[in-house]
Amino acid sequence: MKEIHKWKILNSKWVINNHWCKVRQDKVELANGKIIDDYFVNVRPEITLILPITEQKEIVFVRQYRHGIEDILLELPAGTFDGHKEDSLIAARRELEEETGYIAEPFIKLATIYDNPVKDTNKIHIFIALNASPLSKQNLDDTEDIEVVVIPIEEVKKKITSGEICVAGTITAIFLGLDFLECQNIQ
Q: Which residue in 34, 66, 70, 82 could disulfide with 30, CB within 3.0 to 4.6 Å?
């Protein structure tokens, strides 16, 4: 088996360091001795992503504008948090209620994944939230304009293949969640 080595960081500096965007420029030495002096890393906060399932076997989605691609997308509730200061479960409960007005119990962690480990530092913590039900009004951030959309589980795969649901983390959470439900004989 081939031995793989980490790159050695020789120097780092902030290129952008503000609330909305943090980019670090690293000077690194590769295992073969080659030096790369302009490797850019997006330093991003942790993300919690929730697959809320109602007692009627529906999934609670959010539809919102995403400026990076300048389009409105159907995706699962999610939000960022500081993993050094807050537990992912606490963040998941908060984000579900803030974005949708729904609460749920129990929350079960399905996985922790990396979205783009080539250039991004963050993890995505994926939870399934069972028995989701509306409790209150949404409590949205200034940048959020969210429509809550409830879709029966049996219709969700068709929306993925049609392209209506096209966000990678959402699709990952759906398939992990459907597998979990099948293994638990909950579907």
A: 34
Instruction: Report the amino acid identity of residue 14.
Output: W
156 SS3 class: helix
In 3D space, the residue among 89, 81, 8, 11 whose CA is nearest the CA of residue 44 turns out to be 81
State whether residue 119 is helix, strand or coil: coil
Q: Cα separation of 129 and 135, whole Å?
A: 14
Distance CA 56, CA 28 (A): 53
d(CA 93, CA 136): 13
pTM recorded for the entire structure: 0.92
Task: Name the phi and psi angles at 22, rounded to 5.
Answer: -130, 120
Contact 37, 27 (CB under 8 A): yes
**Pairing relationship of beta strands 8-17 and 46-54 according to DSSP bridges:** unpaired
pLDDT tens column, 34-75: 999 999 999 999 999 999 999 999 999 999 999 999 999 999
Segment holding 170, helix H or strand E: helix 168-183
Report cis status (omega within 30 of 0) of the bond before 106: yes
Q: Give the span between the Cα atoms of 124 and 22, in whole angstroms.
A: 18
- Give the pLDDT score at 186: 65
Q: In residues, how long is the chain? A: 187
- Average pLDDT over all residues of the chain: 95
Helix, strand or coil, per DSSP, at residue 166: coil
